[in-house]
Specification:
Layout lengths: L6 E7 L5 E9 L2 E8 L6 E8 L2 E8 L5 H15 L2 E7 L6 H32 L1
Parallel strand pairs: 3-6
Antiparallel strand pairs: 1-2, 2-3, 4-5, 4-6
Helix pairs in contact: 1-2
């Protein structure tokens, strides 16, 4: 579901039958991504900012289980959009690899559609002239 205010909400059901809600709020200079299992809750929180192909990351609220996963999401998205990415992850139990792949895949679909789509259109127009 897309909102005109830059909010996109998706439901993710993984192979292990876990259900997640993914909320992505886009701004001119970044994204706020919230991944929740079950209730609407803020979980661990990581912030990344990119500048000249480098990403600086800070952990605001540490993750009990998935610090590498949440850092990877935050850094990767900040580099893709060349801006700020704030990621919150709330899970009841540790994630398995398939859960992480499903979550990362949906996030990359959202970010790729929002930020890479415009560049692709410009490249196509440039070659058609």
């Amino acid at each position: 579901m897309k909102d005109t205010n830059g909010l996109e909400i998706r439901k993710i059901t993984t192979e292990s039958q876990k259900s997640f809600t993914l909320k992505c709020v886009s701004f001119e200079n970044g994204l706020f991504i919230v991944v929740m299992e079950g209730a609407d809750r803020i979980g661990s929180l990581t912030v990344s900012i990119s500048s000249s192909n480098k990403s600086n990351t800070a952990t605001v609220i540490p993750s009990k289980y998935h610090s590498v996963f949440i850092n990877t999401i935050s850094e990767r998205v900040s580099l893709m959009i060349n801006g700020i990415c704030i990621v919150s992850l709330y899970t009841k139990n540790p994630l398995n690899l398939e859960d992480m792949k499903a979550i990362m895949g949906d996030i990359m679909n959202i970010v790729g559609g929002k930020h890479n789509g415009d560049n692709k259109k410009k490249e196509i127009e440039r070659y058609q002239r």
